[in-house]
Amino acid sequence: MPAEAPVLSERRGAVGVAYLNRPDARNALSADLMDVLADLVESWDADDDVRCIVIAGGETYFAAGGDIKGMAEQDFQAVVAAPTASFWRRVADCATPMVAAVSGYALGGGCELALLCDMVVASETAEFGQPEILLGIIPGGGGTQRLTRVMGKQRAMELVLTGRRIDAEEAHALGLVNKVVRKREWLDRAIELATVVAHRPPLAARMAKRAVLAADEVGLGAGLDIERRLFELAMATEDRVEGMSAFVEKRKPDFRAR
Ligand code: DAK
């Protein structure tokens, strides 16, 4: 991709790394950026060689949210018809595990994008928030739902109603972030975590992701049913035969995504 593309990408072994790349607009999520990112995530999700995805911003900004300049121009009809509304569903539908690598601001849609990922590695410089209320709107990319599931109603309510930003430590204490790391290490540590996941048997990793996400989507009984079905499916894979044989034979497993 050309350097001025809104999203850059590279492969690190079995990990696909996407870099949001609109530094002049603090990586605000323009329609173009969202389209390119969703296309990239979908193409990696369909690629057997990509086993985990990292979504990263830059050193000082993960993403400052939806593109306020673009949104300022939109009337009601344009909002209802906006193709970008499907961005959140397209990324959420990705079966491949995803890690957000956050350094600097992750605000509004930027925070929602981090929340869409399955794990978040944050630099000590990271700041999260849902400041939409300060613009007269509310989060529209899943923030009211996913933030509440991550940290509970009272805490999410405060952030959504006040627009207050929280630092990496508070985000960690509230469960929004998996790891807080030193400022020059955020990308390497995120890729390191993604690489660990990429080495897990891929079918089981996708099933595990699906099962954990079900906990947010359905009640306990239905969730346990989904887990049971996925467990049975995992038991039907060649990789589980290999994993269990390798354990018994005291050797390293050779997983083949079968
Ligand atoms: N959109 C557009 N441009 C932005 C931007 C944004 N979100 N954030 C920053 N910029 C631009 C600034 O306008 C400025 O442009 P120029 O003046 O140079 O042309 C440039 O980036 C540098 O910004 P600052 O001068 O403000 O930079 P600082 O480093 O001083 O401050 C900041 C960085 C991130 C703290 C600050 O820029 C800021 O507060 N930005 C706005 C944060 C915010 O309110 N975010 C929430 C946006 S609303 C939807 C789903 C989701 C959404 C919408 C729809 N659907 C399903 C339809 C999401 C909405 C949102 O996220």
Protein traits:
258 residues, 2-enoyl-CoA Hydratase, Chain A, domain 1, Lyase 2-enoyl-coa Hydratase, Chain  A, domain 2, 2 domains, 4-stranded mixed sheet, 47% helix, globular
Structure, briefly:
This protein is of the alpha/beta class. The chain is built from 12 helices and 10 strands. The chain is globular.
Sequence-ordered SSE layout with sheet pairings:
Blueprint: E1 7-12, E2 15-20, H1 31-45, E3 52-56, E4 61-63, H2 68-72, H3 76-81, H4 86-92, E5 98-102, E6 105-107, H5 109-116, E7 119-123, E8 127-129, H6 143-151, H7 153-162, E9 166-167, H8 168-173, E10 179-181, H9 186-198, H10 202-217, H11 220-235, H12 238-248
Parallel strand pairs: 2-3, 3-5, 4-6, 5-7, 6-8, 7-10
Antiparallel strand pairs: 1-2, 8-9
Helix pairs in contact: 1-4, 6-7, 10-11
Bound molecules: 4-(N,N-dimethylamino)cinnamoyl-COA.
Please describe what this structure looks like.
The protein has 258 residues and is an alpha/beta fold. Helix content is 47%, strand content 16%. The chain contains twelve helices and ten strands. The relative contact order is 0.12. The structure holds 4-(N,N-dimethylamino)cinnamoyl-COA (DAK). The site of 4-(N,N-dimethylamino)cinnamoyl-COA has 22 residues, from helix 2 and strand 6. Residues 25-26, 28, 64-69, 82, 84-85, 88, 105, 107-109, 131-132, 135, 140-141 line the site of 4-(N,N-dimethylamino)cinnamoyl-COA (DAK).
Indicate the proportion of strand residues.
15-25%
Q: In angstroms, what is the radius of gyration? A: 19 Å
User: Which whole number gives the mean pLDDT?
Assistant: 96
Instruction: Find the CATH superfamily of the largest domain.
Output: 2-enoyl-CoA Hydratase, Chain A, domain 1
